[in-house]
Amino acid sequence: MSNEAATATTAAEAAPAPEPIPHGLGVPLPAAEARAKTEGTFPYAADLWAEGLLWAAVLRSPHPHARIVSIDTSHAREMPGVRAVVTHEDVPGSALLGRGKADRPVFASEVVRHHGEPIAAVAADHPDTARMAAAAVIVEYEVLDPVTDPEQAFEAEPLHPDGNLIRHIPLRHGDPDAVGEIVVEGQYRIGRQDPAPIGAEAGLAVPRPDGGVELYVASTDPHTDRDTAAACYGLEPERVKVVVTGVPGATADREDHGFQLPLGLLALKTGCPVKLTATREESFLGHTHRHPTLLRYRHHADAEGRLVKVEAQILLDAGAYADTSSQALAAAVSFACGPYVVPNAFIEGWAVRTNNPPSGHVRGEGAMQVCAAYEAQMDKLAKKLGVDPAELRLRNVMATGDVLPTGQTVTCPAPVAELLQAVRDVPLPALPKDSPEDEWLLPGGPEGAGDPGAVRRGVGYGLGMVHMLGAEGTDEVSTATVRVQDGVATVLCAAVETGQGFTTLARQIVQDTLGIDEVHVAPVDTDQPPAGPSCRSRHTWVSGGAVERAAKMVRTQLLQPLAHKFGMSTELLQITDGKITSYDGVLSTTVTEAMDGKELWATAQCRPHPTEPLDEAGQGDAFVGLAFCAIRAVVDVDIELGSVRVVELALAQDVGRVLNPAQLAARIEAGVTQGVGIALTENLRSARGVIRHPDLTGYALPTALDAPDIRIVKLVEERDVVAPFGAKAVSAVPVVTSPAAIASAVRAATGRPVNRLPIRPQAAVVTNQ
């Protein structure tokens, strides 16, 4: 051996072994798809292709309310390159659909009830041909007066065979005759926000030899979408398969059936694969939005500021169809008093149909709207009493063991006082200097027209709460399979990764339970058992719980032969860093050696404890669990121009248990930033039911330049004993709370009431300085 070789060998032998890569729960494991997404190689629905592909386009109504006199598709059918045109006459199965209630037609047939409602769909050999053919469909309308004011919906002619009232909840809790020494009232309006997904809707439908069809879409609830599609196509569910493609972000029901169902109809009619890629305008017109809401409140308190009674009226504008409005109303009414102890509460809630754009599930639905209102009432109460707003809130916050206005006892951890104290006591950010180099810190930026002398700083607070999982008797269940072979684990679960980090969590659960480094999560399709929708962080609970149970069953299969061999129970064995050891050190082997080439697998379900519907007085144990958040907002306001800059949002949240620190922080920061948009810029405006500027120029999303400093002051890890791992939902409650906190800070800076979201510049202008 040469001296060089000997030296190299010695150096190699002396080199320390590489540090093992951390894995398992509690570790900031990066997302498996992170690299592909940053490199632009991650496959989204818009990237799909198939041999013989046709392109689809949808004709949508230009009117919010009209009677359809006739539909003439002959010109479109005669265009070169057009392969099929479908209308309501071509729907072989159920003509109605809907997530919460099936009351929405696949294609409008007799009446158009909202701007953008689908009328017809076209398949052609080129996307431009498809769009031109859709435009060539001649529809004769008898235009009707739209009902766009939800208050008028009560007296208007029925817009739908089911009437205009979708649901009414009269909540009655306590003594109706109770009064307080101090009374404050207010009326509040919340605008319409759009989910505005990064990638607009897209999909591919491929016909099957058995006469069925496969849908490749970014679904967040594939089994429900499959069942809806099968009913529409007149097929058995087994002949329709939904394959979930890469989801480009989802803070709501990601895929509207108005995009999915025409694809399958066209594929079945032509016998060819059909693809649809929506424009941004079509995306705004097609999917559902957050419910615009009108709220009226009256708070009663004693001389010390302790709440005596809350009275409220809540009116949700559902748009043309019911969708999930019933669920949103239940959340709004149940949380109308916020995370405060209120001995007497009397809430009236309604959800009504109008000819406005359709409303549906958007992160924090119902809870966000009422949070903005009840926190404004708390500010009014503090001002009238001359009490610090944070102190007033502390006198009223709820804790574990208190009772909601629905009569349900709060059994989960509710450290609301601890959260509020944490954000109240953190030092305030420094004031901006009045110098040219720091002008970018002022509202409007360095080129703004404002005078630095007109800038006022405000500090405000928000306390929010959301429910986890479904409510009112929803059967929450998920199924997962864990399979291990050759040192590699595979998880099969139909829980869709929408950006909430489930695939990363599933890997961590299996790593933690089985000590296996390499864990893969299989793509999602409807050949797998259902896991339910991706919303309210439910997959962390139900699907994570199912993965954990399946992994523990595999663990038992792995350890039982060893335990039997050494005459001990499996509880005396542990798996750490891929090694199996006994409590006394007698047994020590690796997981790979114990597997000995075998394949182990197990399937398990997770189903939380049941809930019940609210009764005729709004009472009932309707929720599985609750999550809470406190935010202190610091804003700078130009009181002459009304421009607002959010300087800092300090947040404290009860998370149950931190499963992935990096992922959790990212989810919180994203939720807070979404709340900034709700507070200041996002408002999908309409004029007599017609959406104005349905694009990302007219709909102002917050950018990185609008994002404030976000300080996560405290994460309270008090585990919820009924939840797998003890973890709570993390992303929805910051969305609910941050708009209320920002509005509170603007009130503090200006002295103005600020009773509308988003906050308009005129609401922050102070005329009498």
How far is it from the N-terminal to the C-terminal residue, by CA? Answer: 90 Å
Can you tell me the residue ranges where pLDDT is under 50 for at least 5 consecutive residues? 1-15
Helix content: 25-40%
- Radius of gyration (CA) equals 28 Å
Count of DSSP H/I helices = 16
Biased composition (Low complexity): 1-16
Region (Disordered): 1-28
Pfam families: Ald_Xan_dh_C, MoCoBD_1, MoCoBD_2
Protein name: Xanthine dehydrogenase family protein molybdopterin-binding subunit
Can you tell me about this structure?
With 769 residues, this protein is an alpha+beta fold. Helices cover 25% and strands 26% of the residues. The chain contains 16 helices and 31 strands. The strands form eight sheets. It has a seven-stranded mixed sheet with strand order 3-7-1-14-11-12-13. The protein has a six-stranded mixed sheet with strand order 9-17-16-15-10-31. The longest helix has 28 residues, at 538-565.
Main traits of this protein?
769 residues; 26% strand; disordered N terminus; 6-stranded mixed β-sheet; single chain; alpha+beta; 25% helix; 7-stranded mixed β-sheet; AldOxase/xan_DH_MoCoBD2
Fold topology:
Blueprint: H1 3-14, H2 34-39, E1 54-60, E2 66-72, H3 74-78, E3 82-86, E4 96-97, E5 104-105, E6 111-112, E7 118-124, H4 127-136, E8 138-143, E9 165-173, E10 182-190, E11 202-207, E12 213-217, H5 222-233, E13 240-244, H6 257-270, E14 274-277, H7 280-286, E15 293-301, E16 307-317, H8 325-334, E17 344-352, H9 367-385, H10 389-394, H11 416-425, E18 455-471, E19 478-485, E20 488-493, H12 502-514, E21 518-521, H13 538-565, E22 573-576, E23 579-582, E24 588-590, H14 591-595, E25 599-606, E26 623-638, E27 644-654, H15 661-680, E28 686-687, E29 690-691, E30 709-716, H16 732-750, E31 756-757
Parallel strand pairs: 1-14, 10-31, 12-13, 16-17, 20-21, 27-30
Antiparallel strand pairs: 1-7, 2-6, 2-8, 3-7, 4-5, 9-17, 10-15, 11-12, 11-14, 15-16, 18-26, 19-20, 19-25, 22-23, 23-24, 26-27, 28-29
Organism: Streptomyces cellulosae
Protein name: Xanthine dehydrogenase family protein molybdopterin-binding subunit
Pfam family, one: Ald_Xan_dh_C
